[in-house]
């Protein structure tokens, strides 16, 4: 009998892989052993059909596992007397940390079964579901390296944990009401605390609930008064609120099967769906008919909603503006007491805080808008690798951190905007935890070219080689990495801001990478950005700049002053700033252009949150398919003004603007590709969070020979920057930046 050593790498720890191998071997009458190591799962096996055994591993692997590689070698013959599951070997190597996953149907059924010992137990899990990344302190993934090490399993749980035939075999968070964590509220514990929380929700209250990766603020999504009060307290009059409900409610919604499948997946993101007839308050999503739905992805949430009279609850991130999500009782009661006096706590520590992921369905496939719980920190496979360990420090807004080695880039959960000291501390905490978790010490750190970003300062203070990379080039490299491209492609990068080599602000770029040379082939019109960075909060100010510099202001003064309540004096002041170049910077930003048109069409002259007016413009679209044809931005703005003057409904104007901009952008890309003999186009930048634009581009691309490549695993906004930085640090050839 021949003996082989098989090494399986990927998400193969904490997902029931060893008992799977044990049962597979036992079913085939094979002998050997299986163990976890720092480099993956290692199997020793006696077999004469190694190819068949490895094929079965790939075909039958546990549902939460992801095999990135499986290799074998023949070893000296060893005759095993049976098949054993050996203790973990801490051998170093590259570990893959499993993401948190939604409760599986079997566990969900147990907590609703009065005859089951886990009836109404909010921390029920097994090898097919439950907390992973949020509780892991170190790898390899064993209970003593998680926050569950403080809970000693009772005999019943220990028996499950040690039984290879049980679905809780080596389920590291395994627990029950006798030995595991518990919930508490207002002096109550267990299900009584959950009932107390549900009663507060039913009476119109707002509560804070500690979940899987942090706290949620929760209220009845059908109660207008409660939703409006939450909006008022959070100073969030327009920004959409996420809605959570039970799986059976999701299945009743008037949304597509693809959207239902994504909501109910193991990753369980918030999914943006067009669902105007949902039985929720009209104040959930004031700017459009789209609503972000998520399933009750933990047993605690299932029990909480089940105890409520409502089918829908608001579940929005428990944090103050620009701060990270609260993760423990002390920080929650300190920061969230402005929203509520009622806290449903639990005593399972959150080691790695993780917000909810957000996605949509585009062309039948998931399109990621925020990558966090359920998705992070699963790696992105790089098309090439230099073998070096590289860190991507990320951007200033929508920050993530990435570590890359051996052909994989491990991108952190969403961290946020590095404007607040607590978020900066979260950034540094995440960087250190990731280095320790993956056992990586970067040799190089790639950072944004902006000298004053916190991420840049962190990189320069790191003590290792720090290399700057222009912001939009990093966007391009990120989308290239996800789509397996290394050269000869066009990057259409549309966002709000990024420092250019000439110290201006870019944001509407057509970047060509051909034979190792990167050039700026085209861009949106460059205009003055009055007030510098503050223009992002004042789209009316940017609108005046566009109109003035496009020669449209004089003929549209009456429209501007009536729609935006901006005085002639203010307009004169803005024009003077532009003419005298006082407190101005030049920009080609697509984000500023969309916000300016949004201000004109919707009347939102001040952004209360990032891209407020642009989001409201997107939500205003009629869906009729109307367009003006392929016309450049200057003429496009002129046509918008003409629509307003002639009384065209704003819904039709918003529709035509989006469709026409997409057509113009695609035509411009096609022309550049034809000139240079290339066919691959990557799209990145925060503007591609606009689903109306993305869906239109996806539709028209099917009629062309060029291939549009969207992000597949990460968001198009600045959270992908760290990936692009690590890919650049592993690039197979020198890139000459000719701009």
What does this structure look like?
There is one protein chain. By secondary structure, this protein is of the alpha/beta class. It folds into four domains: 3-85, Alpha-Beta Plaits (2-Layer Sandwich); 183-358, DHBP synthase (Alpha-Beta Complex), CATH 3.90.870; 379-475, Nucleotidyltransferase, domain 5, CATH 3.30.420.360; 527-709, 2-Layer Sandwich (Nucleotidyltransferase, domain 5). It has 22 helices and 30 strands. Strands 7-6-14-8-9-13-10-12-11-15-16 form an eleven-stranded mixed beta sheet, with helices on both faces. A six-stranded mixed beta sheet has the order 17-20-19-18-21-22, sandwiched between helices. The chain has a six-stranded mixed beta sheet with strand order 29-28-23-24-25-30, with helices on both faces. A hairpin with a 2-residue loop joins strand 2 and strand 3. The radius of gyration is 27 Å and the shape is globular. The termini are far apart. The mean pLDDT is 94.
Present the secondary structure layout:
Blueprint: E1 3-11, H1 17-27, E2 31-37, E3 40-46, H2 50-60, E4 66-74, E5 83-85, H3 105-111, H4 155-162, E6 183-185, E7 188-189, H5 190-202, E8 207-210, E9 215-220, H6 224-234, E10 243-245, H7 247-252, H8 257-263, E11 270-274, E12 290-295, H9 299-307, E13 313-317, H10 329-335, E14 343-346, E15 358-362, E16 365-370, E17 380-381, E18 390-392, E19 402-405, E20 408-411, H11 421-438, E21 444-448, H12 454-460, E22 465-469, H13 471-482, E23 489-494, E24 508-514, E25 517-523, E26 527-530, H14 539-549, H15 553-564, H16 568-580, E27 584-587, H17 590-602, H18 612-620, H19 633-645, H20 650-676, E28 680-684, H21 691-701, E29 707-709, H22 721-729, E30 736-737
Helix pairs in contact: 5-9, 13-22, 14-15, 14-16, 14-17, 15-17, 17-18, 19-20, 20-21
